[in-house]
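Weekly modeling sync, notes
Attendees: S.R. (lead), two postdocs, one rotation student

Agenda item 3: backlog of single-chain predictions. S.R. asked that every request posted to the team notebook include the full sequence so nobody has to chase files. The rotation student volunteered to paste the first one in as an example of the format we agreed on. Action items at the bottom.

Example entry:
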Amino acid sequence: MGAETMSTETMSTKAVSTKAVSTASAKTPSTAPTDGAPTRFKSRFKSFPAADHTPEPLEEPAREDIRLEHVMAALSDPLRLTIVQRLLLEAEAYDHTCGWFGFDRPKSSLTHHFKVLREAGVTRQRQYGLERRSQVRIEDLEDRFPGLLDLVADWRP
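Predicted structure, as returned to the notebook:
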């Protein structure tokens, strides 16, 4: 009977803390970016405007389909974590090619890593002729997993 009481108390505590979290997030002020899409954050990461001739992104999951376990799996590799961190902190343009990073790795290996990041919903890639350029999906990730990109930016190898 003690175990039943304990689980009931635990469930009550979880229900109260879940309610507190949902109430707190409901009170979070929202701001609207210039494109009109609602968002609840002000990102610390620099974003660049897209050029008029920007190609459509390659296939990627929609914002609502980005899953935490896929994002965490993609970021579990130190090279991929470094790619995302450098795109967040050192980006000089709207998007960057593999060569911008200066990694001494085979092209096939880098292609694989960029594909994993794109398929997890972490990055967006566009095809420019023979090259693919990448950028972090800052707004989508901040909306789905607030604070995650701050952790990536603060990561030290």
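Discussion: group reviewed the output briefly. The chain has six helices and three strands.
Action items: rotation student to repeat for the remaining queue; S.R. to check formatting next week.
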